[in-house]
Amino acid sequence: MQPGTDAPISKAALRALQQYSDRDDATPDLLATLEELGLLWPVETPDHATLQARMFNAYAQASQSHVVDNFILGVEENRPELRAGLSAYSFMQHFPRHEEAPHPSHACRVCGRQSNDTFDPTWLSAVTYTAGAVIGGGMDLITFVLEHQNRTAHRRPASTSTLVALLRLLHHDAAPGDTPARVLKRVRSVPGLKVTVEQAGHLLEVLGHAGLLRTPEHPGLAQCFVNVGLVPSRSHSSDWSYPVDFWTGRHGVDAAALKQWFGDYPEVMGVLEP
Questions:
Q1: Measuring CA to CA, how many Å separate 97 from each of 56, 108, 120, 264?
Q2: Which residues of 175-198 are buried (b: 16+ CB within 10 A; e: fewer)?
Q3: pTM for this prediction
């Protein structure tokens, strides 16, 4: 199968992807299983300019309404791969076209990509199907997620009840001093939402990327591009993505971002009401 189908991934395929991290480290048995499941693709080696052009092409083919509807479906149907598109699309709102600008770490100071990075669709598929978010903000994952997004059929969600419950929790029920880590348990208890601790964290990070969970000093990636690999974190021990790393319950859900993404869904906009 091609990455980015409409059918939910099988449990066997998900288990195989969860075991995969690198082509060189994968056992022959795992590679054979992935190939049998149609989840093993050649590792590519695009240069910086080629991958950037491919990423912007995928972004040009994406539509906001499709991205938003997929995100809602991803929440309502517990499908991380459908939630990931909002993360990637948010990064692209202000992603700068640029020439490779090496940082002393040998990574591009604009996007963070290293010149010897590979494009491994199997690993990128594993991240998309298990995390449901763009982790690290790299061009390879943004590209893969957007191409995956563009291959899905555009379905209008029949319900937004789980998303509404999640957003109401974050806007009304979180205590002013609550950090993302403190609300994880309550996020996992939202009726209809079936996520692991890790997936719950990545879901909050997607909401941060979209600017729904932000602070005045730390806007979302949909409002202002930053290299998330270089931006400072809230603390030395924090591994949360920017900007949700700085969000607390007192900030609630950002009204402007909610309208930007979900303005066509009155029931979602209603979460701002008492």
A1: 9, 12, 23, 30
A2: eeebbbeebbeebbebeebebeee
A3: 0.95
Give the least confident one: 30-39, 108-117, 140-149, 211-220: 108-117
CA of residue 42 relative to chain centroid, distance = 23
Q: Which of 125, 129, 123, 133 is nearest to 201 (CA)?
A: 133
* Whole-angstrom distance, CA of residue 148 vs CA of residue 248: 32
Give the whole-number percent of the chain exceeding pLDDT 90: 86
pLDDT at 232 over 80: no
**Which residues on neighbouring strands pair with residue 119, listed in sequence order?**
44
Sequence-distant (≥ 6) Cβ neighbours of residue 183 within 8 angstroms: 169, 170, 174, 204, 249
Task: Give residues with Cβ within 8 angstroms of 97, minimum separation 6.
Answer: 52, 56
- Selection from 273, 8, 220 nearest residue 93 by Cα: 220
The structural domains of the chain, with segments of one domain joined by +, span 11-151, 161-272
- Concatenated DSSP letters of 161-207: HHHHHHHHIIIIIS-TT--HHHHHHHHHTSTT----HHHHHHHHHHH
Q: Is 112 in contact with 137 (CB distance < 8 Å)?
A: yes
Q: What are phi and psi of 217, to 5 degrees?
A: -85, -20
Burial class (CB in 10 A: 0-12, 13-18, 19+), 155: middle
